[in-house]
Automatic annotation (TrEMBL):
Name of protein: Lysine--tRNA ligase
Binding site for Mg(2+) 2: 429
This enzyme's EC code(s): 6.1.1.6
Cofactor binding annotation: Binds 3 Mg(2+) ions per subunit.
């Protein structure tokens, strides 16, 4: 055994001893807290028998209205997060939804027995406090305790007692602890709520109607993605968790709802990374008598509205880079961005074979066999390979090949392309929109072509939806449609590096697997 191996072994032994010591200390704390609970219950003071608290104010209300509340009696409630009580007096902090407020306790006000009881409280306990409001010499708003009540006994210490959250995944697995310890995490999710509220406000003000469509469906349609499959026992049929809301929302346009939107969960049985979670939140909206140009305007104006409403500015810093969401956003065709970033002009490529030669020269990664790829397939792959990551500032890439846009109208004046755009920020897609295809004959042909793609091995190709074709045959007016990934948008507006940082309970593999 080498000297380095011996040294490593000593370090490992030392680490194991420290972990054992920490585990023993934790077990002692757990026992101590359970003993305290048992004693309280024996005295008829079971904190879990408390049902309701009549609190008069929150921490924020007291701080915001200090002048009118000075020397007045208030009742607050929250989690005890620090306690500095020694001898006959001391200070503590409790946290509620809005922040923290300081407490001051003195034996002359509560008596010896009550002070002794207060000293037994642990960090993490929930308490109700009644007292008068004052400011300390340092100017901190404080409640002078007159009475208190234990509301909930915390039987486990918070992780910070043991050097914080060691496992990076623990923040996601135990989000409840993450929210207690990290105020910036709470702020992120408060902003998430405000962002979604602002989106609704923007659309409601424009006379859109919010609707709900099925999450379980006999067909997974509206996007190119792998679905989750389940089985309905009573009907004895396989069903899919929706991958998009598109086809149901278009049915509502057929039915006469001229402006509709839905904010809800979609599910895709695909990989997990910093940009993807199998369960995610999206908004889709559809407007009759509109096209993809109108959808560009709605997108940039809605995002700017949300930024101003929630953050007070359309300029945000994301991972050290300033992103300016001020309209108008940059607009560039897919052909032009590929020419700009890869040096290949697809306007000069006339055949599929020419495009395949370029794909070979560029060693392009493709979703299907090269011989099965068309010029449009390769143009799209070139953009994904060379163009996406260059799009830092908000940019609309528009006019996508017809091969990758089966639900989209062909471009006016050039039928190789469709009236489709995607919005990109920081090299990441945040939205997708079309001038919606409303010709049932062409739509059926596109679905049939997608079935051929599935036969060639593309398990993300669209399924045939006969009822949707039937709806189009009834008649759908010219329509613009838009989908935005809300989680990704929130990432940018809260400077969150991973999608897991903006989903309260992201999908995680069970620890024992």
């Amino acid at each position: 055994m080498s000297k380095e191996e011996k040294q490593l072994t000593k370090e490992e032994i030392k680490r194991m001893k420290m972990e054992a010591k920490e585990a023993e200390a934790l077990n002692d704390l757990l026992k101590e807290r359970r003993d305290k609970l048992a004693n309280l219950q024996a005295e008829g003071k079971d904190p879990f028998d408390v049902y309701k608290v009549e609190r008069t104010h929150t921490s924020k209300q007291i701080k915001d209205n200090y002048e009118e509340l000075e020397d007045k009696e208030v009742t607050v409630a929250g989690r005890l997060m620090s306690k500095r009580v020694h001898g006959k007096a001391g200070f503590s902090d409790i946290h509620d939804r809005y922040g923290k407020i300081q407490l001051y306790i003195k034996i002359n006000d509560v008596g010896e027995e009550k002070l002794k009881e207060y000293k037994t409280f642990d960090i993490g306990d929930f308490v109700a406090i009644t007292g008068s409001v004052f400011k300390t010499k340092t100017g901190e708003v404080t409640i002078h305790i007159k009475d208190f009540k234990l509301l909930t006994k915390s039987l486990k210490p918070l992780p910070e007692k043991f050097h914080g959250l060691k496992d990076p995944d623990l923040r996601y697995r135990q989000r409840y602890v993450d929210l207690i310890i990290n105020p910036e995490v709470r702020e992120t999710f408060m902003n998430r709520t405000a962002i979604i509220k602002a989106i609704r406000e923007f659309l409601d003000n424009k006379d859109f109607i919010e609707v709900e469509t099925p999450i379980l469906s006999p067909i997974a349609g509206g996007a190119a993605a792998k679905p989750f499959i389940t089985h309905h026992n009573a009907l004895d049929i396989d069903m899919y968790l929706r991958i998009a809301t598109e086809l149901y929302l278009k049915r509502l346009i057929v039915g006469g709802f001229e402006k509709v939107y839905e904010i809800g969960k979609n599910f895709r049985n695909e990989g997990i990374d910093i940009r993807h979670n199998p369960e995610f939140t999206a908004i889709e909206l559809y407007e009759a008598y509109a096209d993809y140009n109108d959808m560009m305007e709605i997108t940039e104006n809605m995002v700017a509205y949300v930024c101003e409403k929630v953050l007070g500015t359309t300029k945000v810093v994301y991972q050290g880079e300033e992103i300016d969401f001020t309209p108008p956003w940059r607009r560039i065709t897919m052909v032009d961005i590929v020419k700009e970033c890869a040096g290949v002009d697809f306007n000069k490529i006339e055949t599929d074979e020419e495009a395949r030669e370029i794909a070979k020269d560029k060693n392009l990664e493709l979703k299907k066999k090269l011989e099965d790829c068309t010029k449009g397939d390769i143009l799209n792959a070139m953009f994904e390979e060379f163009g996406e990551e260059t799009l830092i500032q908000p940019t609309f890439i528009y006019d996508y090949p017809v091969e990758v846009s089966p639900l989209t109208k062909k471009k006016r004046g050039n039928e190789e392309f469709t009236e489709r755009f995607e919005g990109f920020v920081f090299g990441r897609e945040i939205c997708n929109a079309y001038s919606e295809l409303n010709d049932p004959i062409v739509q059926k042909e596109r679905f049939i072509q997608q079935l051929r793609e599935r036969e060639l091995g593309d398990d993300e190709a669209y399924m045939m939806d006969d009822d949707f074709i039937n709806a189009l045959e009834i008649g759908m007016p010219p329509t613009g449609g838009l989908g935005i990934g809300i989680d990704r948008l929130i990432m940018f507006l809260t400077d969150s590096a991973s999608i897991r940082d903006v989903i309260l309970f992201p999908t995680m593999k069970p620890i024992n697997q």
